[in-house]
Amino acid sequence: MTAIETKHLTKRFNEEVVAVDRLDLRVTEGEVFGFLGPNGAGKSTVINVLLDFVRPTEGDVTVLGYDPTTDAEQIRRRTGVLPEGASLYARLTGREHIGWVARANDATVDVDSLLSRVGLSSDEAGRAVGDYSKGMRRRLALAMALVGDPELLILDEPSAGLDPTGMQEFREIIRAEAGDGRTVFFSSHILGEVEAVCDRIGILNDGCLVATGTPDALRSNLDLGGTISIDVAYVPDALALNAIDGVEDVTIDESTITATITDSTKKIEVISELDEHTRILDITSAETSLERLFNTYTSSSREDAPAVDNEIGAAEVGVKR
Ligand SMILES: Nc1ncnc2c1ncn2[C@@H]1O[C@H](COP(=O)(O)OP(=O)(O)OP(=O)(O)O)[C@@H](O)[C@H]1O
């Protein structure tokens, strides 16, 4: 079943600002969907529309089968939200925060067990939030979003401001909470975060969805290739690697030859060419990072964004379910 669907969703704030432009998006129930885009791409606006904090200018939206403009209450009851700048009260303890959210939502909750799911010990739960680290605050805010056991979790930039260890811990918690069929929709401009956690990614640029798919499928669809580094016994005098179509930037560092491969099928030609002229000792091949893929999609202006080719208007390149 579909957890989130938008059809031709457009949000204009005024004549000049088109924050979301004819967005067609489908998130399946139970998947972890990463909504990725640079600052100002329109991610928060979409989230605000899903929760009826902002009304669309045009288009249709359903969340868990409900229309936010008429049934926002139903959606909010079934959805846990971690907003970008979730505010906490310095004098209240972690436990008191959870109790307060539970009362406001009329939910029963085992406070300590919920807090331990996000990595806050019973001892920490009793401390005032003013003493919490950034990571602890973020984890508490996530626990608040989990009160009531929501079907859908919407996380807006969940790891903002966390250090790499904090981000890693947060990723693990999100992955664990995504079990049991819960849908997770989270926005980020940090590619590594999305790549590590999500089943599927949608890349938003200038209010338009420019690609959707699994991280692997997005990478292979663009065939951005990667690099190959080959350790050789000696570097041959004449090397014709640059002459191979799809091979660029050949560099030699002592006995290591490295080349950028823009067409991944050409790796084997590079190896054969070297094998003919020297003795190969070792081969290291690295695929293109999703970083490059992200840059490829988001560095383009709306006019020259990569072609889109499916019924929802973005390059859907495979769904892992
Ligand atoms: N209330 C508003 N009034 C006018 N313009 C707005 C409003 N809210 C957002 N915008 C504009 O809409 C565009 C999209 O903003 P949005 O906050 O949705 O992007 P974002 O992808 O969430 O960015 P970030 O990662 O920086 O939070 C931006 O140009 C922003 O300035």
Search tags:
single chain; about 325 residues; alpha/beta; Rossmann fold; Alpha-Beta Plaits; 2 domains; seven-stranded mixed β-sheet; four-stranded antiparallel β-sheet; 11 helices; 14 strands; about 30% helix; about 30% strand; disordered C terminus; binds adenosine-5'-triphosphate; transport; ATP-binding cassette domain-containing protein; ABC_transporter-like_ATP-bd
In terms of DSSP E residues, the strand content is 25-35%
Largest sheet: 7 strands, mixed
Percent helix: 25-40%
CATH class of the largest domain: Alpha Beta
CATH architecture verdict of the largest domain: 3-Layer(aba) Sandwich
Query: What would the principal axes of the Cα set say about the shape?
Result: globular
Chain-averaged pLDDT: 84
How does the helix and strand content classify structurally?
Answer: alpha/beta
Low-pLDDT residue spans: 301-321
Number of distinct beta strands: 14
What Rg is obtained from the alpha carbons, in whole angstroms? 24 Å
